[in-house]
Design goal:
Layout (H helix, E strand, L loop, with lengths): L2 H24 L31 H12 L2 E6 L2 E6 L2 H9 L13 H4 L13 H14 L8 H17 L4 H18 L9 H16 L2 H9 L14 H30 L6 H8 L7 H36 L1 H15 L14 H13 L9 E2 L4 E3 L2 E3 L4 E4 L1 H5 L42 H18 E5 L14 E3 L3 E3 L4 E5 L6 H11 L1
């Protein structure tokens, strides 16, 4: 490499480091009298506490800090203020009771690079975000969700058929199930049971974005945005090499399904859905109609991505948990059989008679939360909480993992135990583990639809299939060593498993007969 290029890069890196060091020194918060920052680990110059964090599971590091310093922890990460909340009580006090000050998002430099800067989940707390939120709440509020049940039933039946025909493709089938439900609810798009192009492109976009936009990587580029000016061929700049393809996928997954719904409205071939219903309300003579239409398109894309990732991930955790705990699986199956029998499939009307299935669902959500650190909030203004100073602009990180693994609330938290959500008389407790859906004004607006979709899926999976360890060529059981991977969201790494019908006579014809009886 020419010397002037090498020198230029070295000079740029040096300037960045010096600039951040000065910023970190000069921007030390001036604390009001009588307050102090929350306690936390020792910070190194520039890096802060970054080297002390397990980048593969930062929530575990934060939980350990909570044991040492308390439920509110202050740390510096690359010169930026970060407040970690390890307690559900404090999370509710700040993010819900003071939501006006804690509903913002930190600025993430890589969002625009990947084409997700218009995503509702990452959007700053402003009028644009409030419009997104209004659209999503109107579309997925609790009293509206039952309208989606016929579609959820049909898509779950397709999942059963896919697993019966091709059990080895279980991961892809779960993603198709999750994606087809949310794309039907959002766009009135009826995805094919297999090899649907639009579902495959949406899944690919999620895979690329979630793999590359890991929190630790985003934190570095947010602290040093000048690094984004470096050429993509440099070591460590893989993110820039992946970004163009990710941005192309994001644009495609925003425009194509939206255009599908618009065409359907024009020809009268579309049924009620989030996009169609809001397009019909748009007043083209209104000067804000273009802005509102763009907000609808962006919030629709957000709902699709979030709904696909969370639903598929929770269902994957369910299958893993059933293999690891065959006694729980068999207990659940026997309960389903005692209530429903073997001559029909479960319905939503059976839910109240099957509290143990809800207990399993809650334990899955608690045991391995999909968003162990939620999505970070940011403080709009400086605040004081219980004598501790929270600087303006600080990143607020709710450690959902620590809340779900609180030993006082959940004894032996690493153990998978659905009974913790049942009273002595077998009824469900009041604990719905709602922390996994977020907090305050940033709580997931699609949680009611997602929760219903997962419940309906797992009760059918337990009714029809047995999940067990795969066997090798000699017939020996292959032990699973569970491993979870991801970034913003975390799901199990692919694992070998056996998915077989519980009934010896359960073939495609028999399953189709049961499905027909359910119609």
């Amino acid at each position: 490499m020419p010397d002037h290029v090498t020198g230029g890069l070295a000079g740029l890196l040096t300037a960045v480091v010096i600039g951040v060091a000065l910023r970190s020194y000069l921007a030390k918060p001036k604390l009001p009298h009588g307050v102090r920052l929350p306690p936390g680990p020792t910070s190194l110059p520039i890096l802060g506490s970054a080297l002390a964090i397990d980048v593969n599971a930062p929530w575990v590091t934060y939980q350990a800090w909570g044991s040492q310093y308390g439920d509110l922890v202050y740390t510096k990460l690359f010169g930026l203020d970060n407040i970690v909340i390890n307690s559900e009580r404090i999370a509710r006090d700040l993010l819900e009771n003071r939501s006006q000050n804690y509903s913002d998002r930190p600025e993430i430099a890589t969002n625009e690079l990947f084409g997700v800067d218009n995503t509702t989940a990452f959007m700053p707390y402003n009028s644009r975000w409030r419009l997104h939120r209004k659209i999503l709440h109107q579309s997925f509020r609790q009293d509206v969700v039952p309208d989606f049940r016929p579609m959820q039933v049909a898509k779950t039946h397709e999942l059963l058929l896919n697993l019966l025909e091709d059990p080895s493709g279980y991961l892809k089938h779960l993603e198709v199930h999750a994606g087809s439900i949310i794309m039907s609810a959002v766009y009135s798009y009826d995805a094919a049971r297999r090899n649907d192009h639009m579902i495959e492109r949406a899944s690919l976009a999620l895979e690329v974005i979630l793999q590359e936009m890991r929190p630790e990587v985003a934190a570095i580029f947010s602290a040093f945005p000048s690094l984004l000016r470096l050429p993509s061929w440099l070591p460590g700049m893989r993110l820039k090499r992946a970004a163009p393809f990710a941005k192309q996928l994001a644009l495609e997954n925003s425009e194509k399904p939206f255009a599908h719904t618009e065409r359907g409205l024009a020809t009268g071939t579309i049924s009620s859905c989030m996009v169609a219903d809001h397009l019909l309300k748009l007043d083209e003579s209104d000067g804000d109609s273009a802005w509102q239409k763009k907000a609808l398109q962006d919030s629709a894309q957000t709902a699709t991505a979030a709904g696909t990732e969370t639903t598929a991930g929770v269902e994957l955790n369910f299958i893993l948990a059933m293999i690891l705990h065959p006694d729980i699986q068999e207990k659940a199956h026997k309960l389903i059989e005692s209530v429903i029998g073997t001559k029909r499939l479960p319905t939503f009307q059976d839910r109240s008679s099957l509290p143990y299935i809800d207990a399993i669902l809650r334990e899955i959500l608690r045991w391995r939360p999909m968003f162990p650190l939620a999505i970070m909030h940011a403080a709009v203004e400086s605040d004081v909480y219980e004598g501790y100073y929270i600087p303006k602009g600080a990143t607020i990180t709710p450690n959902v993992w620590a809340m779900c693994h609180n030993e006082e609330k959940y004894p032996n938290p690493s153990e998978f135990n659905p009974d913790r959500f049942l009273n002595a008389d077998g009824t469900l407790t009041d604990d719905t583990v709602d922390v996994v859906w977020g907090f305050g004004r940033r709580i997931c607006p699609g949680r009611h639809l997602a929760e219903a979709s997962v419940w309906f899926a797992i009760v059918h999976l337990l009714a029809i299939f047995k999940f067990s360890n795969a066997k090798d060529e000699s017939g020996k059981k292959i032990e699973i060593k569970p491993r979870w991977e991801g970034g913003v969201t975390v799901r199990p790494a692919p694992f070998p498993c056996s998915i077989t019908p519980r009934s010896a006579g359960m073939d495609i014809t028999a399953l189709q007969h049961l499905i027909k009886l359910s119609d």
